[in-house]
Amino acid sequence: MSPDTTAGPLASPDTAPAEASRGLLARLGEPKVLSWIAVAVVILAWELAVIVLQLNPIYLPRPSRIVVALFDMFRNGGLTTDLIATLTRIFGGFFIALVFGVALGVWMAVSVRVRAIADNFIAALYPLPKVTLIPLLIIWLGTGGPFMLTISMLGAFFPIVINTVLGISQCDQGLVLAARDLGASRRQIIRMVLLPSAIPSIFAGIRLGLGVSIILVVAAEMVVGKVGLGARLYLAGQVLETEQVFAVLIVLATLGIVVTKIQDAIDVRLGHWRVN
Known about the structure:
Strand content: under 5%
Order of helices and strands: HHHHHHHHHHH
Number of helices: 11
Radius of gyration: 27 Å
CATH class of the largest domain: Mainly Alpha
CATH architecture of the largest domain: Orthogonal Bundle
Largest sheet: none
Helix content: over 70%
Distance between the termini: 62 Å
CATH topology of the largest domain: MetI-like fold
Number of domains: 2
């Protein structure tokens, strides 16, 4: 009987390319890689469509030209200054909302009287579109820094308050009773039992609030801003600089991706902490 030459070590060189190919396909099929491949395919299709259809760049410029305009705006157009101004307004108002929103949420959760007083105001103001408050805030505060910080703060404040109240209200009462039996004071129960158990819910409010703050600050800059991404976006649209409009939109989209990825990473860490 002749030996089987298709088995054993002699088959390894033939199967190695196939295994490498399967490994490459498996890596390309991973969700994270696949998401960026989808983005690349859309950008390439966009570039080819504009070239083949010979579209007017005023309506839809090529992605390659948008990237050139983006780098030129960062290098010579002052886009870095606009980005810093917008980020300062967003996170300045957001951190104010975080401090006061968590404080009020805790107070409402542990005090029936405070909750009764604040509940109607929050129920009335939370669903109100905050953009509609821009004219009133301009009358009260002008168009400077206090106005921008206030509109950013209003965007994040209510989601943080509501989720803080919800998180503390869902705390296991057995933990509270156990802490009382061990002689913990009211302040210790809040700091060591209620707040830790409410962290995932508070973080959900932070995610919602930060997104609303970004939207409101950019909208406010488009209305009254002289510096900022919203102001740059509005000005570019007024003079029909479509490439610059798309460049600013790319910056805003990148900001959204970065914020979302950071929030996802923190959410994963919080999930491990809660399980442990």
